[in-house]
Structure to design on (362 residues):
């Protein structure tokens, strides 16, 4: 009854829109971590491969293993490899991002034990986001020891922490300058240098002159780019819909939901939808903060969102049981729905429960 519809034609549009802003030689890494931002990594990855993406990228090794088990054999980068998953990375031919000296040593040791040489890896540099990554001095240390490692360095990259902020931006420019200095050192060290990449979706729109050899596209594939004028160029690929399963006539003074979260100020019609915070629609959307669209009108969510249900006010809406209710679509986007509760599309989409049926529309 509750379904997440995914439009592959819109995914194609977003991929080609981004590609059209790149040089012909710039490669694309499609980011499908967190189950493709909650939308379904296997189906979307297969379509992205058919469109010509050069790499897929996941957050953790298990996400890459899931894709391998689904028959996906293209290069897969693991952004945040964990020490306890090193064997799984190697056994499934996943390409880790080397983010710390400790991980570099541990991964090299594991490869030598397995007699694996020339293994594809990527070097993650910290240029100011201060999340994970090697410092400039740690990169220097890696370069002096590179011939001791059983690695084939495929790329060197960093991540911009504010790529969507208006230019000029001092913080972002400092990150770019830091990465360019690392890039210059690496190029001097290798006869055949690896690829270099710095830009995410917002970076492609805001800093196209720094696209280098490769760009990493995540949220842009799914229809968002963190600024209204860029969003207009993309098409949200996901529609989340449900149905009204019951309608109650609530008298003035009666309450709705847990802890009497809503009190009727007049005789009201209250509809029940079969999804709740266990499905990713958090309690923050309750008590009139969020709303859904039913027969062309917005129905506010009343009371507290339950684990499996939420209630909406239908008093001013001509509606019957089993009528469709749209939480977000191309007209009322996931970005707009998320904003109602003070969050972002990333958090909303990645919170959507697996129990919501995914429907692929090609």
């Amino acid at each position: 009854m509750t379904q997440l519809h995914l439009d592959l034609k819109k995914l194609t549009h977003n991929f080609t829109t981004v590609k059209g802003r790149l040089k012909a030689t710039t490669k694309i890494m499609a980011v499908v971590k967190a189950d493709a931002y909650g939308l379904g990594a296997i189906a979307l990855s297969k379509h992205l491969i058919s469109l010509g993406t050069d790499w897929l990228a996941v957050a953790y090794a298990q996400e890459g293993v899931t894709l391998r088990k689904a028959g996906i054999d293209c290069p897969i980068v693991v952004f945040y490899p964990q020490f306890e998953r090193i064997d799984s990375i190697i056994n499934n031919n996943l390409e880790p991002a080397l983010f710390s000296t400790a991980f570099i040593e541990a991964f090299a040791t594991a490869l030598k034990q397995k007699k694996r040489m020339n293994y594809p890896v990527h070097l993650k540099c910290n240029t100011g986001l201060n999340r994970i990554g090697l410092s400039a001095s740690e990169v220097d240390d890696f370069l002096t020891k590179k011939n001791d490692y059983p690695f084939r360095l495929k790329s060197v990259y960093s991540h911009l922490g504010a790529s969507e902020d208006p230019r000029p931006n001092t913080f972002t420019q400092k990150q770019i300058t830091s990465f360019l200095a690392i890039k210059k050192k690496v190029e001097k060290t290798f006869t055949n240098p690896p690829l270099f990449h710095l830009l995410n979706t917002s970076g492609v729109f805001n800093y196209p002159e720094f696209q280098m050899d490769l760009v990493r596209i995540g949220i842009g594939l799914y229809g968002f780019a963190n600024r209204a004028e860029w969003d207009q160029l993309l098409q949200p690929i996901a529609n989340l819909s449900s149905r009204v399963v019951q309608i109650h006539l609530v008298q003035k003074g009666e309450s709705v939901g847990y802890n009497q979260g809503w009190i009727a100020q007049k005789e009201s019609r209250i509809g029940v939808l079969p999804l709740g915070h266990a499905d990713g629609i958090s309690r923050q959307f309750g008590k009139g903060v969020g709303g859904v669209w039913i027969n062309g009108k917005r129905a506010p969510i009343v009371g507290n969102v339950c684990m499996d249900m939420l209630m909406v006010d239908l008093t001013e809406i001509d509606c019957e049981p089993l009528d469709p209710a749209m939480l977000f679509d191309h007209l009322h986007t996931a970005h707009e729905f998320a904003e109602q509760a003070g969050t972002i599309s990333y958090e909303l989409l990645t919170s959507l429960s697996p129990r919501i049926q995914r429907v692929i529309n090609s």
Remarks:
- The chain has a mean pLDDT of 97.
- The two ends are 20 Å apart (CA to CA).
